[in-house]
Amino acid sequence: MTQVLEEFGELIDPKTNRPLTERTIHIANTSNMPVAAREASIYTGITLAEYYRDMGYHTAIMADSTSRWAEALREISGRLEEMPAEEGFPAYLPSRLSEFYERAGYVRTLCGSEGSVTIIGAVSPQGSDFSEPVTQNTKRFVRCFWALDKSLAYARHYPAINWNASYSEYSDDLSDYYNTNIAPDFMQLRQQLSDILGEESKLMEIVKLMGADVLPDDQKILIEAARVVRVGFLQQNAYHADDTFVPLEKQYLMMKLILALYDKARNALSKGVSAAQIIECGWFEKLIKMKYDIPNNRPDMFGEYEKEMTEDFKKLERAVK
């Protein structure tokens, strides 16, 4: 906690250029404090958030972690000699979790202003076991789940969110907004990228057993396209001026260009160009770096990239003929 408090004091809010601590409240209950204090901390945090919400502010509460809170709840329940349920947690664990998460929301206050509470709850299951009660019951009540992956973090892929285990049920609710304000095919492109990553996950099982050389050319191209999505699109550098915050318009153009490359590569394969020639042309590597090479205020450069790409693939196809 000492390290957190020291580092937090040095952070500057990019919107106000003032210390972030001016808009932050820390509630710290360490493991050497009474178990009742650990159990009460989550309620203290949400009550403070509601207090500022009622004043017309938009507040965010980060609970790290609800698993530790549930362990404190289990300990208190054991001391009260209550009937234990799964893994020793009290039978009312699901209702307590639902009561916590349902306190999030957007409201109109009595004075006519608007305020909201956003809850981000961290779950830290022992041994990364997502089938344990706290994780399972949390997933019952929330509609968005980010699964953090240790292997991604060790590979320095940040944010270390596993794209196959994570999900959001808000995509259908937000599709009208994206399709109206960004582009009519925004959600369609998003789904196509997700399908590429899903196919890559299946192919990697074969690659681990037999190596990538046994794959046909179309699957080699798919793996390269998925690498562009993973490294060039999903991976983020929070210390880079352009990659810290990428506007939705640029994200859309990046998705469109990645899928354009994948389509051109498959088309070239059908005309006799080998996967090795397509990979050697350098466009997969170039698109991995486009988030850095194309500034956020230069969307016109995507059109230049696509023209250049089209010319290069025409040259490849002519060389085969």
Concise description?
The protein has 321 residues and is mostly helical. The protein is built from 14 helices and five strands. The strands form two sheets. Strands 1-3-2 form a three-stranded mixed β-sheet. Strands 4-5 form a two-stranded antiparallel sheet.
Descriptive terms for the model:
321 residues, mainly alpha, 3-stranded mixed β-sheet, two-stranded antiparallel sheet, 14 helices, 5 strands
Characterize the structure shown.
Helix content is 55%, strand content 7%. The protein has 14 helices and five strands. It has helices at 2-8, 35-54, 66-79, 93-101, 133-141, 150-154, 171-181, 186-210, 217-234, 248-270, 275-280, 283-288, 290-293, 300-320, and strands at residues 58-64, 105-108, 114-122, 144-145, 167-168. The strands form two sheets. A three-stranded mixed β-sheet has the order 1-3-2. Strands 4-5 form a two-stranded antiparallel sheet. The longest helix has 25 residues, at 186-210. The relative contact order is 0.06. The mean pLDDT is 91.
Set out the fold topology:
Elements lengths: L1 H7 L26 H20 L3 E7 L1 H14 L13 H9 L3 E4 L5 E9 L10 H9 L2 E2 L4 H5 L12 E2 L2 H11 L4 H25 L6 H18 L13 H23 L4 H6 L2 H6 L1 H4 L6 H21 L1
Parallel strand pairs: 1-3
Antiparallel strand pairs: 2-3, 4-5
Return residue spans where pLDDT drops below 50 for at least 5 consecutive residues.
none
Given helix and strand content, the structural type is mainly alpha
* Radius of gyration using CA atoms only: 24 Å
- State the distance separating the first and last CA atoms: 66 Å
**What is the H/E string?**
HHEHHEEHEHEHHHHHHHH
Q: Total number of helical segments?
A: 14
Strand content: 5-15%
Which descriptor suits the 3D outline?
globular
Strand order of the largest sheet: 1-3-2
Question: Total strand count, please?
Answer: 5
Characterize the main sheet. 3 strands, mixed
Helix content range: 55-70%
| Average of the residue pLDDT scores | 91
